[in-house]
Please model this.
Amino acid sequence: MNDNKGITMGLFERYLTLWVGLAIVVGVGLGSVFPSGFAFVAKLEVAHVNLVVAVFIWLMIYPMMAQIDFSALKDVGKKPAGLILTVVINWLIKPFTMAALGWLFFKIFFADFVDPKTADEYIAGMILLGVAPCTAMVFVWSQLTKGDATYTLMQVSINDIIMIFAFAPIAAFLLGVTDVHVPWETLLISVVLYVLLPLLAGVWTRKKLERKNDLSRLNGFLDRIKPWSIVGLLSTVVLLFGFQAETIFEKPQAIVLIAIPLMLQTYGIFVVAYGAAKLLKLPHKIAAPCALIGTSNFFELAVAVAISLFGLHSGAALATVVGVLVEVPVMLSLVAIANKTRSYFP
Model:
């Protein structure tokens, strides 16, 4: 890839925060004006995975997968520090800090504002978010910080493998129950749609366009499809906020109360992960995605499990929905922080 071209930011990337803000407003507006239309789209799902959202996420990820030099995967294991840090943050720290913050805020700080049963459900929703590390959106954050796409792919793949075995027992332990019914179809279909299929498409694309010592055809193709990644992101935001428009208007106070500990968790985990990456002297192209993987959530899975366990209109489901509302703007602010602190890293 041409490094000079990679450094140049286009109009969409430069003002992405503005476009996402507009997408949020458009989504909430359309969702409130055309609730039946969004309700129809929301029903187009398989195993709690919305097919329309899946298409947009796939559209968002495929251009990034096509940029990955898959021949470099064999060298990722030679630099394991970033992979180890990702595992520690996502599975040994993040779930437990999320549970602690949920208990602290809804059992102590906000105890006078929320009844005990609802507070327990809010905490449960937060725990489900904390136990589900990001799978799809992290490729966006990695690209925006000029992260190592190959290394990011390996980090996400390891998380997906661990999630299959660790999600249920950690969630069960933190929720204080013995039987957590994880919708395995949701987990597996999500991994296939959001990771495996775009990955295979990226491999096929590079195989067809890449020529030895001549990347002109590949670079030209990537330049043409790159804007579709932003289109996929903005379309996903519009749909997610459109789905939840009525909830946003009906329970504004609850949304604010839930958002506060979620934001503290997100910024706190970023500080821990980014600081640890600095101490480990990781290069910025690995350190930034590593920290962002630890802070973002696999909200599609968390929402599905919350609905399965507690019901569509439960406090747990609402908490996971607020996770969606908070994630995009907060993660964009962390991307900005990571980019401004690039010079602090090797």
Q: What stands out?
A: Residues 66 and 202 are 4 Å apart (CA to CA). The mean pLDDT is 84.
